[in-house]
Amino acid sequence: MSNLLNSYFVKTHKLEISITIIAIVLFLIYFLGAPHVFTRFPIYRAFMQSMPFFGIIAISATFVVTLGEIDLSFPSIVGITSLIFGMVMTSTDGNVFIAFILATSLGMFAGLVNGLLVTKIGIPSIVATIGTLFFWRGLVNVISQGSGIAIVDVADGTWHHMIFVEKLFGKIPMQFIWFIVLTGLMQWVYRYHKFGNHIHFVGDNKASAQMMGINVDNVKIIAFVQLGFFSALAGIFTMYEMLYFWPTQGEGLMLTTLAAVFVGGTSVFGGKGTIFGTFIGVLIIGSLESGIVALGLSGFYVKFINGLMITVAVTVYALIQRRKN
Amino acid sequence: MAEELLKLENIYKNFGNVKVLKDVNIKINKGEVVALIGDNGAGKSTLIKVITGVHSPNSGKVFFKNEEVQIKSVAQSRKMGIEAVYQERALCDQQELFRNIFAGREITNSFGFLDIKKQRKEAEKILRDYIGFTSKAITVDSQVMGLSGGEKQGVAFGRSLYFNSDLIVLDEPTMGLSIQETEKVLNFVKGLKNENKSAIFIDHNIIHVYGAADRFIILDRGEVVGEFNKEEISREELVQKMIQLHESGKIKVED
């Protein structure tokens, strides 16, 4: 046992192991407290259905947070790209290729704007992305004039609807499969690609990274651009699930998404993080609401317990970090 | 006749309205160790950053191995054979050693994915052979934050040797080190000459500089105000010159 605890894997994956244990304990509480709900499949199907919408963004946002930066604008990027997707889908009679390319390109463009504001103009990311948060949402309101767009006629029953959100074997929502695949891919990039490596160095110490020959500005810009892309993608998934665009789409994603990243153990100070942790963070944050209600507590507890989880988690990580230094 | 490695001609560098380097001319030969000395704000750091490609000069020419070059990035200067060893700042604390050693020039496949195995193997070689770490506590998977100042400096040196550079640029290599560690660093600098490698280094401590360097270049407010070979000047005289410069703002040139 002590061998196991001292092994290389355990030593280098302390965060991942702690967060996994927390998730297991949480699900045990659900299981014991509400067996009538948690011994049956539907609750898990509901989780698999709803978690990917913010989960995909959380995985992608882990890159930006590891840089020591933040992006608050993604809820509005989801809004504007979903709007464009809906408009193009209805006006081209369901041409998914054009709609997909235009929506994701716009998402990347929005990310590029964030990246340029932060690197070339030098605005702190928290301020720059508050600006673009309002800007893109404002544009959604101006263009949509407050009304929604139904894509049910051009999307329901199509092959793209099938590969985006229908159920595999009639049980597993496709968006969850995509979420798992993207998580795996992003984990690989995060740890084993040059880009992921540079993300860590820039987040750790910008000046050192520059002296080691890393192009700090480019790394940051690409990080914001990929977050723009994945925000658009998450918007498209949501559109297929709901078959409807509504002007507030994306609002309400901000806190759950960032909470998943921080609860997952990615350092607020930059330089260290974990994609796997964010994935577990998504499972925790995404299950809290149903879990709490199933346990018999009133819905009023949801925010309270959410807040408690986030505060305790970031405090623990900050303490671990301080002890190391 | 010594063979010339690096030559800077009429280098000017401004940051906005501030003229940091004014008409700087220096030359470094193969197998020569040059010490750059001067007060804070004299332009030493800027000058070496021009050499390593962190900053581009506003005007002036740079020659490396007798060819005119424009050093536009750190990556380019490294490719040419110029390697910087920056005090501590050269490494990122929370990242593993094997990642630090190859930061900015990772060993990758054509899709940009790291060859972790190879990086770890090569890093291991650098730790054991080039630096001579014998301690079991330091491995290629150690984070930099657990290392002492001297160990960090050792890693930075090992890295420069491994990449087989011709000119090694040392920024304050002995700052914050213990006496023993300082000794190691100075020995390393002396050892470079045996391999016909050149070095340029900045150090506040004239005693260190004097022991390790062949030639001294004194900078003051962005200009080269004095240049001495070691045989021309004793340590005491050099110290006197620096004090003089500090008090009067100029060096008395004896004829």
Walk me through the structure:
The complex is a heterodimer of chains A (325) and B (255). By secondary structure, chain A is mostly helical. Chain A has a single domain, classed as ABC transporter involved in vitamin B12 uptake, BtuC. Chain A has helices spanning 2-5, 8-12, 14-33, 35-38, 41-66, 74-91, 96-121, 125-144, 152-155, 159-165, 174-192, 194-204, 206-211, 216-242, 253-263, 275-294, 301-324; strands spanning 149-150, 167-168, 172-173, 244-245. In chain A, the strands form 2 sheets. Chain A has a two-stranded antiparallel ribbon. Chain A has a two-stranded antiparallel ribbon with strand order 2-3. In chain A, a hairpin with a 3-residue loop joins strand 2 and strand 3. In chain A, helix 6 (74-91) runs parallel beside helix 8 and helix 7 (96-121) packs antiparallel against helix 8 (125-144). Chain A starts with a helix and ends with a helix. With 255 residues, chain B is α/β, with parallel strands linked by helices. Chain B has 8 helices and 10 strands. Chain B has helices at residues 44-52, 74-80, 97-101, 116-131, 149-162, 179-194, 206-212, 235-248, and strands at residues 4-15, 18-29, 33-37, 59-64, 67-69, 82-86, 167-171, 198-202, 215-220, 223-229. In chain B, the strands form 2 sheets. A 6-stranded mixed sheet of chain B has the order 6-7-8-3-9-10, with helices on both faces. In chain B, strands 2-1-4-5 form a 4-stranded antiparallel sheet, covered by helices on one side.
Layout of helices and strands:
The complex is a heterodimer of chains A (about 325) and B (about 260).
Chain A: H1 2-5, H2 8-12, H3 14-33, H4 35-38, H5 41-66, H6 74-91, H7 96-121, H8 125-144, E1 149-150, H9 152-155, H10 159-165, E2 167-168, E3 172-173, H11 174-192, H12 194-204, H13 206-211, H14 216-242, E4 244-245, H15 253-263, H16 275-294, H17 301-324
Helix pairs in contact in A: 3-16, 5-11, 5-12, 5-14, 5-15, 5-16, 6-7, 6-8, 6-14, 7-8, 7-14, 10-11, 11-12, 12-14, 15-16, 15-17, 16-17
Chain B: E1 4-15, E2 18-29, E3 33-37, H1 44-52, E4 59-64, E5 67-69, H2 74-80, E6 82-86, H3 97-101, H4 116-131, H5 149-162, E7 167-171, H6 179-194, E8 198-202, H7 206-212, E9 215-220, E10 223-229, H8 235-248
Parallel strand pairs in B: 3-8, 3-9, 6-7, 7-8
Antiparallel strand pairs in B: 1-2, 1-4, 4-5, 9-10
